[in-house]
Sodium-independent sulfate anion transporter (Glossina pallidipes), 635 residues
Amino acid sequence: MRTDQSSQRNNSSGSEVSLDIPPNAIYNTSRDYIVQTEENEKLNCCTFTKDWLRQLSSNVFRKKTLYKRLPILTWLPKYNRNDFIGDLMAGITVGLTVIPQGLAYAGIAGLDLQYGLYGCFLGCFIYIFLGSSKDVPVGPTAISALLTFQTTHGLWQKAVLLTFLSGLIEIAMGIFRLGFLIDFVSGPVSAGFTSAGSLIIFTSQLKDLLGVNTNGDTFVDMWFSIFGDIHNISWNDAGLGVCCIVVLLTMRAMAGMSFGPKEGKTCWQKFFSTLFWLIGTSRNAVLVVVSAIVGYYLLQADIDIFRMVGYVPKGLPQFQLPPFTMTTITNSTSGEVTEVHESFTHMVSSLGSGLIVVPLISLLENMAVVQAFANGKPCDATQELIAVGVCNVVNSFAQGFRGNGGIARGAVLNSSGVRTQLSNLYTGIIVIVALLYLTPTFYYIPKATLAAIIMAAVIFMIQYRVIKPMWRKSDLIPGLATFVACLVLPLQLGILVGIGINILFILYHAARPRLRVETLSTSNDIKYLMLTPDRCLIFPSVEFVRNVITKQGRKSTLPVVIDCTHIYGADYTAAKVVSTMIGDFEARQQKLYFFNLQPRVAQVFESLHKDLTVLYDMNSLEIKLSGKEEDHSKL
């Protein structure tokens, strides 16, 4: 390889600097400065593995790692009375929210209502020790409930097993630092998935709001089922459900009301502002209590006009291993009893892609909460994976279905003045109290009320505001494709389709880099073509770059200079194509120069073509283009 080096002395304007080109330097720009790195020590495989294990063990067994993996050690020593009051109020507020939500989300998952509460307390206790964010209330969410239903089809054994296995997968992802995987779920894909999921959840609740069948795994199937059973609408339930939705939306607006000026409020103004906020925030609990009271008195008066939730088992769940086998007993129309036994491997295979999608979406939801209230602080996706994974593994021993941080409850927690992760303790205690003493009252809750709670919440998950910023941009395509795929396919397959389309866009942009083509002149009026690729050369893009350079070179007889400022990496395929391109230019007797090629890239190119001319400053380029004699040195 030929490398031309020359020095430029400072002129009167001071715009030129003297460059001394070291043999093992990395050149960050063609005209600004040079950064040199130390030569890496050559290590054999055994030495490298030994050093890596030593470094890994030193990183694991040190105080900094301990505090990072057990965040409670950071905030607990500083805990004070103000923290206790803030956490107590926030925990109680979220506890009043999570009880009706847990009951409703169990309905989305196709499970008995008690399973929604089983997943709302044990994970809260674990997150106190392992959680990195004070604003994450662990429990079932609407999206996780829907994914659970579409993966397990309402079988509690498979739902608990999914909680266990997905938790193990999350722990493994955290150990191997795979939190970066959510970077492949772009904003448009996430918006399309969330919007489609909210429409599916909304549609699924029509069975309790209207009293019609909503069978099917997809949005389209559900609506076919609804239209087929539309004549069986329960008008009493429908009227109650609509009224509940109106009340919930009104109470939601109350939470944002404020009396008096922002500063200098009177005592009465503060009292009413706080009262309206408390009523609006606790709207789900207030509605459930009022509906249960109405339902109780109607049944006592032998007025059976609403479908009730029915019996909910009292007490804590039985703590045991997750079900690794199951036996399903079904009655056929002929009265024959059929018993089907499923082994562990069959149960796992039936979960399918849910084992991949559920942990990924869980991480996406959880990090959305963490980042929303981080106030600019760094977010540790690895620690959140480990924390939520352990929470779900432990939840599975209490027969709970999976959960994670939810953005709605996170907003309630944050606005309630939460101070530390200890707020989860009080939320968990409230759920335990409800399981021990309040489950008999759940019998009188109308099903339409729980449906209204879900429907009034998910309508705000439809992210229609992102359409305008994405309009007439390529981002709209993966977002729209994800939205449509999630509606016509099962949700876990729809999100994979969206991610796949998004990755195709990424690969397309990687395979089609931009090249800036300029016709420039030296100080002595010698014209040349300057082509500047905007990224590294790898096998998907190198053939395209070669075709563009060759096409531009054939259009004229001018020398061609490739500005390699942004080429910070190359592979064997790139070196092979560059070698062929150099041969083509030599055959046409047209000059081809590489400007500011980094040494590590030059070594790759040199492996296949020794006759490589590299220039590192404008003076050398002018000398080369003018055809004057210059010194050559071998690298």
User: Anything to note?
Assistant: The longest strand covers residues 515-521. DSSP finds 27 helices and 13 strands in the chain. The chain has two domains: 80-319+350-503, 513-626.
